[in-house]
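## retry 2 of 3
previous attempt timed out at serialization; input unchanged, resubmitting
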Amino acid sequence: MPMTNAQCAETNFYILEDVPSALQVIGRSVVKMKVVMSPIEMIAWFDLPGTPRPIRFRHEGNVVKVEMIVRISEEKIVGNRMKIYECQSEIHGQMRHFELKYELNTCKWFLYKI
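## retry succeeded, writing output
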């Protein structure tokens, strides 16, 4: 298992651990996120150029409102273009960071990391 090395911005200490999931630096802290890649039901709106903006989604029976989109990027893996949305919302009383992926060819949404 690969070793992960991440620096906490608040304390300037390095975190070194065996992690099967992903680590992401958000603001002043390191957030540990688990890779899920599960299909979800999504309600989204599209702006004039056609860029989708997620509003809320259902995952495992729970409805999650997307409160803030932190960053939007795009990736292309094996010719498959996907938009990646780094978001945050309050889930079960805690502010959580997560990533959504939108497959441009099939118009499918996925909860990628949480």
